[in-house]
Amino acid sequence: MTANDSAISTRSIAVGGTSVAALAVLLFSFSFPATAWALDGFGPWTTTGLRGLLAALPAGACLAVSRAPWPARSDWPGLLVVAGGCVVGFPLLTTLALRASSTAHSAVVIGLLPLCTAAVAALRTRVRQRRAFWWAALAGAAAVLGFTLQQSAGRPGPADALLGASLLVCAAGYAEGGRLARRMPGWQVIAWAVVLALPATALTCALALPAEPVRLTAHGLAGLGYLAIVSQFGAFVLWYRGMAAIGVPKASQLQLAQPLLTLCWAVLVLGERLPAAAAVTAVLVVACIAVTQRR
Fold first, then answer.
1. What is the spatial distance between Cα 232 and Cα 46, in angstroms, rounded to a whole number?
2. Could you report how far apart the first and last alpha carbons of the chain are, in Å?
3. Helices (H) and strands (E) in the chain, counts
4. Is 34 a domain residue?
5. Average confidence (pLDDT) over 205-224
6. Is the per-residue pLDDT at 243 higher than 90?
7. Is residue 1 part of a domain?
8. Cβ 137 vs Cβ 115: under 8 Å
9. 3-state DSSP call for residue 223?
10. Is residue 7 one of the residues assigned to a domain?
């Protein structure tokens, strides 16, 4: 293989990885509206428990059918971080927050998540990024943060502590999962994490179902189904695959677009009004993403 062929192959992998990660972001962007739907029929603890419990069905089936080998002993701590952050912590904390906060305000978590994920990944892997990358990441996060705070009139509410905690645990889960996806297939990372979380999600269901009201509405069932099959498993398969191809920091910055996509879904699905500042913010975010994706 010539040097030119090698360069073309590397570019192809990068483009493919970026496309896969971008598709995952699109799927993740509907998670908050789906959570709002799920809360129409289930309590927050029940939603979190059932979300993880139902996601374990396709995850376990994929592991069994493919006869996936057991992870190496050195990988178990990382998988526990993914399970605690992405399967239990983030879903529970954001679901609790959405009971007291609007979808637009809660999007501040997603606005800051890419920067936090890149920072955690840099500390964990000690891979250095260009200075321009960090300036663009900070600018994109600031644009999204300013936009979402403007929509909530700049008044932090009681849910902000939950949103801040969810930001930290999810960033750790994303960064650790992206690192593991370089050593095992990305789908196995989330599949093992979902299975590892089964004791916690099953116990949550057992305690929450008798204590919280349940109404089997169409919105509630549709929202729960999306959270379990797509948000908790399917989108993560694509996400970790994209992270393995282009790296955790670059993949994470694609999520700068997620709050704006979430707001679009909120308008189309939840009937919320789209602010006039959305278009300006979208242009700024796209520009920042373009800078972070440069090699």
1. 15
2. 22
3. 15, 0
4. yes
5. 93
6. no
7. no
8. yes
9. helix
10. no
Task: Count the Cβ atoms, other than its own, within 10 Å of residue 198.
Answer: 17
Question: How does pLDDT run across 89-102, given as a tens digit for each residue?
Answer: 999 998 998 887 77
Query: For residue 40, how many other CB atoms are within 10 A of its CB?
Result: 16
d(CA 209, CA 184): 35
Nearest to 60 by CA among 192, 254, 230: 192
Highest mean pLDDT (candidates 92-101, 139-148, 165-174, 222-231): 222-231
Backbone torsions φ then ψ of 234, nearest 5 degrees = -60, -45
**Exposure string (b/e) for 93-110, b if CB count within 10 Å is 16 or more?**
bbbbbbeebbbbbbbbbb
Provide the domain limits for residue 283: 13-292
The pair of three-digit structure tokens given for residue 83, joined into one six-digit string = 């399970």
What is the rounded CA–CA span in Å between residue 71 and residue 90? 24
- Is pTM beyond 0.90? Reply is no
* Side chain identity at residue 93, one-letter code: L
Answer yes or no: are the C-beta atoms of 98 and 163 closer than 8 Å. Answer: no
What total of structural domains would you count in the chain? 1
Strand, helix or coil at 162?
helix
